[in-house]
Give the backbone structure.
Amino acid sequence: MRVLLLLLVLLGGCTWKPEASRFRAPDGFVVEEAAGVERTGALTALTFDSVGRPTVATERLGPVIMEDRNSDGKFETETVFTRAVRNVRGIWWDGRTLYAAGQHSGGEDSGLFRCPDMNGDDIADSCELLTRFEGSMGEQGPHAIRRGIDGEAMVMLASQTGLPAERTDKNSPLVISSGGRLLTPSVDEREAAAGGILTRLNRKTGQYLVLGGGFRKAYDFAVNPEGDAFTSDSETERDMNLALYRGARSIQVAPGGDYGWRPGPGALAGYNMDTLPGMRDLGRGSPAGVEFYTSTTYPAAYRGAYFEADGGRVLVSKPEKCGGAWCVGPKATVFVHGEAMKANDIEVGPDGALWIAGDGLYRVVYRPGLAQQVYAGSTNMEGMLAVVRQAQPLSSWGHAALLAAKARMGDAEWKKQLWAMALNRGQEAEDRVSALLILDRTGPRATAELLRPLAQDPRSAVRAAAVLVASFHGSPRAKAIVTGGLSDVDPFVRRRALEGMVRMGLNAETHESFAPVNIVYEGLNDRDRAVRYAARIALERYPQELWAGLALEEKSATAGPEAFYALTRTAKSAADLDALFPLELALLKRESLTAEQRLNALRAWQLTAMRREGGAPDAVRATAHAVLAPQFPASDERLTRELARALAYCGRTEAIEKLLAAMPAGDENKPLQAHLAYCLRDIKTGWTGEQQRRMKNRNAEAAER
């Protein structure tokens, strides 16, 4: 009977609960209205303050603190915190200071505002414009603000806004390449745009570190318990049925990661070596708010779950490590669906419920039945276990609870107890990681000597956390811990070590205090794509003369394209770039390359051609055509697309017939049709009358369809 009950509980969690309301949710969950749209209007942002009250924003009003003073579950009392800021898209509390991404009510200035409340009356004393962003407010302007794993503020900027050059930290891990397009841009394409970015703000210096980017319209982001950032990006709906179309995507934002959005045909495919892929394609959709669940009110299976608001639904998945990165399943599970619901922002509240802001304010409450209660298990936590399992520790109210616990214990005891938890190999790895990250965020910070045993721990999650925390320090001992992770058996730790070196200020002046360049160079041949990408970013910060010899002699089909691309990005002259063309084409001649290796080699050649002023010389294009034409078309459609792009760039008359012959007929493959037509338009001469008629007929058929 107990087994039968358990099966019913597990199966019940996977089925929709029939309700007479406009919402659908899994068994045991109920969607409650906390404040209706008639009271709130259309909400654009949601957060909770340091005492746990919801704070919301609309386009017309500034941030509003909401309260349920009669405890009936409805938030009937509103206090306008400030009217100095309007059109707010992101809000975050740090203690009793509110940070808002919005527009000044008295003018057109938009950016990040700081609004303190020193006397605790829930009214801002002032609102100071900290940073004036480039561009305007709106759906693709400045968005979410949250606390990062190191305690500092992070800000998401969508693709129609940007940082002033003087506010951009020169040590940023992401530096978008200034290379142009391989083929002629379309007339409506904006050349300068390179996508939205996720940044970290140093509030002492006012400088922003660009962590990752290449987003179209990423609205929100969230940081998981191990310190990595995640977001969801919108689809490029106007590119439907084109090869360059990309759906909405779930993304892990690695430091230095370029996720490839550019306007029009400039968008990078996920398989391009100079970008990183998303975790999952969500297809059609308009994702907005995201959140990680680290509370205990929901069943244990939801701890660590990743929620993504997408129009009238909220999706849920459970990211897992896969090599040096995070992965999720190919299909997302719908957690909540609402008829005519618009979920703009989500956040977990102090009650452990997921709150949804859009056309009103809602919360998803867990109300288990008897069977679920029987098998829920105990959630009682005492002592330091309650500290390291603090719900939503990066939230304003969760962080405030940790600071209150620290104040009760005193600095010395706080550090002693947390450090004992981190060192205790008998504890769960996630609790030990949490102890270490909380201690570093709240202080007193651990020294490198205390971090050393954790960097050698049997559990890879603990080693990765030790490397991450060490990278927030600047001492020689901390650098030794970080660089020691380069040879770790786990690719996740190796990625963290490479990213940590960049975070600690690796550059031409400081490189001697880090690992020898040949150790970093070895990362280009790593089996893991995330590690290779991080290694290339780190390598480019060493003086080129230290590693150029290795790169020019590289024979590996895996490391070669990475090395050639690093040389391209750091080239100082056209002669430097000209030296790469024969190496890249020699690699492309190999018959033994896998599809991935051939894609990378072809992309390396394209990137060198794009970087060189005036493009590849005509002789190089002629040689490239001779090498690539016999490989077209390929059995792998990705290769067919990239070969077509390269052949069109080479501009030889013979390519016209090859591309026309490869074009699918009818409705067989419309995206490939459009891509080949896009490539053909770049070949300006050599067309026969018959070829022109065939092309016109294809265009006419496409127009009719």
